């Protein structure tokens, strides 16, 4: 048995893995395209697929160049649902790759993007905006903006606490994130309690559980696009270094990769990405925890391959989660975090069972 | 040549190294020996810059280590670190490919030359058939082979190993060290087992309480009176196949050496 494997052609395992990664990437790109169109078509008001394609074609390529559809339909497709599905895919991609980067940084497969306490900071900012009208003079984007400020403040705080003598170790990072997260959750709860506004508390709850209802053409979407795409690109380019860091600090150093510098760079990038994502859509759980595992199962653990695939899986999943959130109790919307939790929690249980199986 | 001069280091107020000097020559395997806490692992970490001495200096081919970045060091020294218990999900090929990091620029993709280097390294440690397996699924002996292969893929001048025989049964201990002799002419290896050191090293340095108490050939360093004073256990020296081997005396017996 051992002799047959020993004589296997040398490059086979590598080429097969590369082919597999290409197939997954191509398939997922196609799936994302279809999901985006489906996500625009489906909703409280159904728009036929052909009509969706006509409106998109008209706006993007001026084909067809004549409008043959009603204004409201155009508005649903172009002004409401397109920015919404785009934001959903960016948020899904951002959470997935940030989860993957953090799992490597702290060497724990159960790490998720909210580990850094960034989402708690965003929630505190959002709660302050909703309940007390703290708008920072930002008009219609006040909610996202104050959530973003809260998220950045939390990540700076976590970084300051975790850093000692110019070094950030994974243990200190974990502890600092958890501590800051709990403290800010307490502040958010206190704000809700102190505001005495049932309506406001309901809005905060809705936002806390995640929602893409705020999506529209504008700065939050543009910011999310730039930051998420940048994060995916950087994590892919630094894939090998991330692999080395995932094995261990000593290993990384022995390979000429300074673990402290890499961790600091990743921390800044990932915190920024999570801040942008959470401020645009609230805390959507389980995506950043579960999707990295799906991506690794599909194409292996090397980050140069797994990061883009995780981004695509996260994007597709979140577009569909948002569709379900919109149509399940239409015309009412369910917070999307409930959908991702219902789907994600069983995945997590399966994962835990698998981990035990490999350990045994 | 790796030269360490007057290395001092302490964790808080407890001194670990108190003026350690040693030389690793090209073409020779140097063994670092000493009881637990004698500072041998600390000294090895300083040789590749993973730890900076509080005073003293290390130089690599005549250039001070402190002036070289980690990347430059990793092109000259390949380190087999004690992280073989990592539950990394990488495949063996991906794990060995990490050894190419010092040779690749950040934006550069791995090419055919890198895959050849990985295949050649795996072949030299007799682990080419493991290439497609996951690292976590390997046995301790297989893991050590893979980590040695990764160090080989770095194509560095020196191989540094920190207790590569840890957690291995007796056959794998000999296999790993024979492997080091076969694949590398210039190596520094931290070892616990004095007889393994005698068999596989050209030069030995014996540390005790952060100081070098002996250095030289195995015959010179593994003198029974020296071993008894450093380890507190009596030993008799014999010669097997022209090499030194020690027989140890259980503590309740009188030393007959």
From TrEMBL, chain A:
This is Iron ABC transporter permease. SUPFAM superfamilies: ABC transporter involved in vitamin B12 uptake, BtuC. The chain crosses the membrane at residues 29-62, 82-102, 114-136, 142-161, 173-194, 222-242, 262-295, 307-328, 334-352. GO terms for biological process: siderophore-iron import into cell. Its main location: membrane. InterPro entries: ABC_BtuC-like, ABC_transptr_permease_BtuC. CDD domains: TM_ABC_iron-siderophores_like (cd06550). Keywords: Cell membrane, Membrane, Transmembrane, Transmembrane helix, Transport.
From TrEMBL, chain B:
Transmembrane segments: none annotated. CDD domains: ABC_Iron-Siderophores_B12_Hemin. The lineage of its organism: Bacteria, Bacillati, Actinomycetota, Actinomycetes, Propionibacteriales. This is ABC transporter ATP-binding protein. Residues 2-234 form the ABC transporter domain. Pfam families: ABC_tran. Keywords: ATP-binding, Nucleotide-binding, Transport. Signal peptide: none annotated. GO terms for molecular function: ATP binding; ATP hydrolysis activity.
């Amino acid at each position: 048995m051992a002799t047959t494997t020993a004589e296997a052609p040398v490059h086979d395992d590598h080429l097969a893995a590369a082919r597999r990664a290409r197939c997954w990437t191509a398939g997922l790109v196609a799936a994302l395209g279809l999901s985006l169109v489906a996500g625009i078509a489906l909703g409280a008001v159904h728009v036929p697929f052909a009509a969706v394609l006509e409106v998109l074609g008209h706006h993007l390529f001026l084909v067809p160049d004549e409008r043959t559809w009603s204004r409201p339909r155009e508005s649903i497709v172009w002004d409401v649902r397109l920015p919404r599905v785009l934001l959903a895919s960016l948020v899904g991609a951002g959470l997935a790759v940030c989860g993957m980067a953090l799992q490597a940084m702290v060497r724990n497969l159960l790490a998720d993007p909210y580990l850094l306490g960034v989402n708690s900071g965003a929630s505190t900012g959002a709660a302050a905006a909703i309940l007390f009208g703290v708008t920072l003079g930002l008009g219609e984007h006040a909610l996202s903006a104050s959530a973003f400020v809260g998220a950045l403040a939390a990540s700076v705080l976590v970084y300051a606490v975790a850093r000692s003598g110019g070094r950030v170790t994974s243990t200190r990072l974990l502890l600092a994130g958890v501590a800051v997260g709990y403290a800010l959750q307490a502040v958010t709860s206190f704000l809700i309690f102190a505001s005495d506004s049932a309506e406001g508390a309901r809005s905060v709850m809705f936002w806390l559980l995640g929602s893409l209802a705020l999506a529209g053409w504008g700065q939050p979407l543009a910011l999310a696009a730039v930051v998420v795409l940048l994060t995916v690109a950087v994590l892919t380019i630094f894939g090998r270094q991330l692999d080395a860091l995932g094995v261990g600090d000593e290993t990384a150093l022995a390979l000429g990769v300074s673990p402290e510098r890499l961790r600091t760079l990743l921390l800044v990038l990932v915190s920024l990405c999570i801040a942008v994502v959470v401020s645009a859509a609230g805390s959507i759980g389980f995506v950043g925890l579960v999707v990295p595992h799906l991506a690794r199962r599909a194409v292996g653990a090397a980050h140069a391959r797994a990061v883009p695939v995780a981004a695509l899986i996260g994007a597709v999943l979140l577009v569909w989660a948002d569709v379900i959130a919109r149509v399940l109790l239409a015309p009412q919307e369910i917070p999307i975090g409930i959908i991702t939790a219902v789907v994600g929690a069983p995945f997590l249980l399966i994962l835990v069972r698998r981990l035990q199986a490999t350990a045994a | 040549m790796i030269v360490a001069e007057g290395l001092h280091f302490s964790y808080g107020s407890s001194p670990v190294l108190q003026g350690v000097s040693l030389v690793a020559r090209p073409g020779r395997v140097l063994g670092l020996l000493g009881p637990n806490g004698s500072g041998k692992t600390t000294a090895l970490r300083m040789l590749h810059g993973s730890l900076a001495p509080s005073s003293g200096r290390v130089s690599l081919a005549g250039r001070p280590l402190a002036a070289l970045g980690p990347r430059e060091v990793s092109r000259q020294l390949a380190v087999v670190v004690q992280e073989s218990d990592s539950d990394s999900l990488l495949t063996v090929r991906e794990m060995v490919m990490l050894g190419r990091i010092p040779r690749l620029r950040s934006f550069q993709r791995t090419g055919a030359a890198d895959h050849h280097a990985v295949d050649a390294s795996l072949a030299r440690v007799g682990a080419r058939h493991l290439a497609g397996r996951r690292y976590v699924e390997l046995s301790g002996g297989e893991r050590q082979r893979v980590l040695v292969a990764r160090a080989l893929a770095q194509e560095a001048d020196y191989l540094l190993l920190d207790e590569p025989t840890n957690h291995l049964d007796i056959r794998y201990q000999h296999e790993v060290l024979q492997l080091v002799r076969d694949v590398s002419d210039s190596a520094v290896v931290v070892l616990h087992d004095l007889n393994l050191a005698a068999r596989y090293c050209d030069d030995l340095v014996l540390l005790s309480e952060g100081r070098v108490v002996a250095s030289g050939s195995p015959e010179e360093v593994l003198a029974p009176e020296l071993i008894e004073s450093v380890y507190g256990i009596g030993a008799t020296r014999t010669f097997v196949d022209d090499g030194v081997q020690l027989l140890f005396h259980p503590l309740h017996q009188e030393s007959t050496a």
